[in-house]
Amino acid sequence: MSDAPDTQESFISHLVELRDRLIRAVAAVVLVFIALFPWANDLYTLLAQPLIAKLPQGSQMIATGVASTFFIPVKVAMMSAFLIALPFVLYQMWAFIAPGLYQHERKLALPLLVASVLLFFVGMAFAYFLVFPVVFGFLAGATPEGVNFAPDIGAYLDFVMTLFIAFGVTFEVPVVVILLVLTNMVSVQKLREARPYVIVGAFVIGAIFTPPDVISQIMLAIPLWLLYELGIVLAGFLRKVKPAEAPQDASGDYQPMSDAEMDAELDAIESENKSARSDN
After folding, report:
1. What is the pLDDT of residues 35-66, one digit of tens each?
2. How many CA atoms lie less than 13 Å away from 249 in the CB half-sphere?
3. What is the pLDDT of residues 76-120, one digit of tens each?
């Protein structure tokens, strides 16, 4: 019965820490948004530049909503603020969950977290600089005679956000493949055998998330396939170079910790938590 108050106190302290870290994360996003707000219109113009460059001469974008000219740039500023503050937000998340992880799990999770964020940004940049000019060039060129190609600013934002998410998630493929292999859910050999299905699936995904032109579909499908191959290569390498803290048997496969090793890990985590609370 004496352990009950300690357990309740520990649970409450975790809730307090979670609240504090959420407040810090939200405050960071709000502060960046306040700093970006005066340049909201400029941010939207920058986002729309790939389309503006492809509009027919004399044509321009339109706003069909009464308040669209205000709220759409504000949305862009909010999303930009979130992306800029994302490293700090993820740090708060990591600082909360890291004390509950084993040492070898920390060494695996942190690089994968950083890599996933960087790959998502790379996917967005790939879409903006390479895919958007091709897509909007195709759409402008496919406009029927007598039709004025003048997209609505709200519809444009929805369209580019869909492509940003599609390419950002696509570039996460290596991280997903590595996680599947290192958690022993799928072997590298099985992933190699699934290559033909992945290639077909990549082109299906490209057909779903891009406009109906072959070039833009290929520009999504080919990176998806190549990133899948990169994930297989990296996963095979990491399987050979496993962290020393992760127990292995003679075949190199991960083995669960013994009771003594688990008790030692739990004691170390508890001491770290007590030290962190005393510092605060």
Report:
1. 999 999 999 999 999 999 998 887 889 998 88
2. 7
3. 999 999 999 999 998 898 888 888 777 777 888 888 889 999 999
Q: Which residues contact 115 (CB under 8 A, 6 or more apart)?
A: 174, 175
For 131, 160, 173, 203, 228, the CA distances from 209, given in Å and listed in that order, are: 12, 11, 16, 10, 18
- Using CA atoms, how far apart are residues 106 and 112, in angstroms rounded to an integer? 10
CB 220 within 8 A of CB 231: no
Query: Phi/psi of residue 247, each to 5°?
Result: -65, 140
> What's the mean pLDDT in 68-73?
94
Mention every residue, 6+ apart, whose C-beta is less than 8 A from residue 102: 245, 257, 265
Q: Which two tokens stand for residue 143?
A: 């406009």
Burial label, 256 (beta-carbon count in 10 A; 0-12, 13-18, 19+): exposed
CB 33 within 8 A of CB 78: yes
